[in-house]
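tool_call: predict_structure(chain=1)
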Amino acid sequence: MARNRDHVDLDAFAHLLKLFGETPWLHYGLWTEDETPSFPTLRAAQERYVDKLIALLPAAPARVLDIGGGTGALALRLAELGYEVDMLTPSAEQVTMARATVGDRARVHRSRFEDFSSDQRFDVCLFSESFQYIGLDAVFARTDALLAPGGRVVIADCFRTDAFKPGGLTVGGGHRYGRVLAAIAQAGYRVDSDEDVTAAAAKSITLDQRFYREAAAPVISLLDRTLAARRPMLSWLVRRAYRVLVPKKERARIAARLEASHRTPEQFIRDNSYRFMVLTRIAD
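tool_result:
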């Protein structure tokens, strides 16, 4: 599951997507080859992702553990289709949003996957952009404990390619794909399907870059200039506090995020492989 700073980023991202993209989804969209990404068409691309994910599940009323379920939009969709759903998130903000979304149609737990236990056994452990936040040394031990006989693990997530080099500016994330395959085999699971959708997902990065360059950075710059012009002493204090309270490395990270020159579909494709996977235990 996400680390604490990632919780804050995702909480903010959920509100921003609702405002700018009019969508409840937090995941990438899947764009066709001839589509030009835009905020008005983002939801349709994300719905394409949801349809592909649901097609990998057994028929309802299977029991689904939605791991890292965010705002609860997927849990609600699954419940409406007749699935029995439990959803996990470690974020208090997302728990509030998810419970408001699903009501009594699904159970929402505030928990990390590594810490979650249940008397119930699930037909599916579902990771939609949450697998990357869980250590490979822990993830399959927990799925073993939670899956019913014949159950499956469904993963839709980003993985690092061999071309990825740590330390520089990058976009995307996740475990090394080769290491994931090794961990799957070592844990006694079989890969039943594995679809690469990297090119379709990469177009989402265009919107990410546009948001930072055309919305976030200009607004911050305007506020800074306005404060400097109208309240110069307060502006000096704010800038001074920022330099004192925010470490240099973190300031550099924020500046790079706002400039967003590294956040391109081309770099995403080089460093990442986005995949939809279905795993089952060999013993089953």
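agent: The longest strand covers residues 147-160. Proceeding to next step.
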